């Protein structure tokens, strides 16, 4: 019997009637509603969940907000226009939104990280008690993380910091991530391992545990495994967690860290 984590810090919910962005990399033809996600959590003994904004749906956050209104055991990130007002951010925070996910195509240019518009948005997020969640390529991470270092803004980096990065653990993105963790206010999600080289997962996790520590790591299932639905089950993601983070004390420290970050 696998001792489950207390919280799943990365999953997506959606229905097939939700609008896709024009650039969506895939278009699922099935539903994974909030009820299905909660059923997966319950079936595996997990108390809390975090709904992560999916790039497929862009700034359409309506379904996520409706789920938050019904289920107090959920928190969420959303995607927002950088011109979102402080009043709207405060309203979203009160509804259970903890942060904003930032993802752009790998070849796309970052916004002007020293410019007024980006700095205003990042500062407003910090003022609202939110975090910025990054799913970026290595070069993009290497530019973004230092630009945020002087702001009191918590950062969560998705998918080991490696899913979209070149150079693996010696690449610019991962090395920038390790430096940011040491400075503080940066956390890393051990999520979507099934999208990374299976034989390397233990090495990735071991380095993060050594250099970041379990208190800077969160676990996420990435349910419903979009694009890999036929080869991944929820239980397999838990089995992977136990394999790559074998010490139950480390796994509990990760859960505690995620609970503090998203709920308390």
TrEMBL record:
Coiled-coil boundaries: none
Amidohydrolase-related domain: residues covered: 7-264
Domain of life: Bacteria
InterPro entries membership: Amidohydro-rel, Aro_Compnd_Degr_Hydrolases, Metal_Hydrolase
PANTHER family in alphabetical order: BARREL METAL-DEPENDENT HYDROLASE, PUTATIVE (AFU_ORTHOLOGUE AFUA_1G16240)-RELATED
Name of the protein described by the UniProt record: Amidohydrolase family protein
């Amino acid at each position: 019997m696998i001792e489950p984590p207390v919280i799943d810090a990365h999953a997506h919910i959606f229905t097939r009637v939700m609008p896709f962005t024009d650039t969506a990399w895939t278009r699922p033809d099935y539903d994974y509603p909030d009820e299905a996600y909660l059923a997966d959590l319950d079936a595996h003994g997990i108390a809390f969940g975090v709904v992560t904004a999916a790039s497929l749906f862009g700034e359409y956050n309506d379904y996520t907000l409706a789920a938050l209104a019904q289920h107090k055991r959920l928190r969420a990130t959303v995607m927002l226009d950088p011109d979102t007002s402080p009043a709207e951010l405060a309203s979203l925070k009160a509804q259970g939104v903890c942060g904003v996910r930032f993802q752009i195509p790998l070849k796309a240019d970052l916004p002007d990280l020293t410019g007024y518009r980006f700095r205003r948005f990042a500062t407003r997020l910090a003022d609202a008690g939110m975090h910025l969640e990054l799913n970026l390529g290595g070069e993009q991470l290497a530019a973004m993380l230092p630009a945020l270092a002087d702001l009191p803004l918590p950062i969560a980096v998705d998918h080991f910091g490696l899913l979209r990065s070149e150079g693996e653990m010696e690449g610019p993105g991962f090395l920038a991530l390790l430096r940011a963790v040491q400075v503080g206010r940066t956390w890393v999600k051990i999520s979507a391992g099934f999208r990374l080289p299976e034989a390397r997962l233990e090495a990735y996790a071991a380095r993060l545990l050594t250099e970041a520590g379990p208190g800077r790591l969160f676990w996420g299932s990435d349910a419903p495994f979009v694009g890999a639905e036929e080869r991944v089950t929820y239980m397999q993601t838990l089995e992977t967690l136990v394999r790559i983070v074998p010490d139950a004390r480390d796994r509990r420290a990760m859960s505690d860290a995620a609970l503090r970050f998203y709920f308390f």
